Amino acid sequence: MKTTLLCALTIVATTSLMPFAKTASAEMLDNSELSLDPAKQTDQIEAMIETVFEPLEEKVPGVVKKMIKIADCESYGGRDGLIMHIDKAGKLIRNAKTKRARGVFQIVPNPHDKMAASMGLDVTKVSDNIQYSRFLVEDRLRMGDKPFTDWVCA
Fold first, then answer.
1. Is 149 a member of any domain?
2. Confidence of residue 77 (pLDDT cuts 50, 70, 90)
3. Is residue 42 included in any domain, yes or no?
4. Phi, psi of 65 (to 5 degrees)
5. Domain for residue 147, yes or no?
6. Do β-strands 3-7 and 10-12 pair in parallel, antiparallel, or remain unpaired?
7. Which of 22, 121, 151, 152 has CA atoms 20 to 30 A from the CA of 107?
8. Residue 111 — pLDDT band, cuts 50, 70, 90?
9. Is the sign of the CA dihedral 108, 25, 70, 1 positive or negative?
């Protein structure tokens, strides 16, 4: 079942909760709705990445294409054209070496789980993993950094 998710990403400052990212309205999929076929799952995830990152194109030209390339490299161990959040058995994709980083954008639990949770996100869920990644891009921009610094594959 597809659901419409209206999310407002926020950042927790040390003293207060302040709105950070633009509100994004997107039709997103749950992990259980992802195809176990790698090619179909890739198409599903690319569509979600486009939906979530398209609003940033004016600020960061090419961000959608760049995030798809990052997801291709991060999520399935190399630039093979496959973007996966869950494997063929339906289990969450984890970093092959450390088993810590997980999901389509390979989010590492520490330090990100607490921040994601404070925003109402669970990065083990494909839609939340993508939305949290947008937060990371916008946070880097806010700090004056390069927007893709959080990913080795950038």
1. no
2. low
3. yes
4. -60, -40
5. no
6. unpaired
7. 22
8. confident
9. positive
Longest dimension (CA), the chain: 45
Radius of gyration of the chain (CA): 14
* Backbone dihedral angles phi then psi of residue 3, each to the nearest 5 degrees: -125, 150
Residue 16 forms part of a structural domain: yes
Contact assessment for residue 126 and residue 104, using Cβ atoms and an 8 Å cutoff? yes
Domain span at 46? 3-142
Q: Are 72 and 38 in contact (CB under 8 A)?
A: no
| The token pair that represents 77 in the structure block | 């161990």
**Domain total for the chain?**
1
**Distance in angstroms (rounded) separating the CA atoms of residues 52 and 6:** 11
Q: Which of 89, 90, 113 is nearest to 101 (CA)?
A: 113
> Cα(76)–Cα(85) distance, rounded to whole angstroms?
8
- Cβ(49)–Cβ(84) under 8 Å? no
With a CB cutoff of 8 Å and minimum separation 6, the contacts of 140 are 146, 147, 148, 149, 150
Digit-coded pLDDT (tens) for 126-146: 999 999 999 999 999 999 999
Report how far residue 125's alpha carbon sits from residue 13's, in angstroms, rounded to the nearest whole number. 24
CB of 132 closer than 8 Å to CB of 121: yes
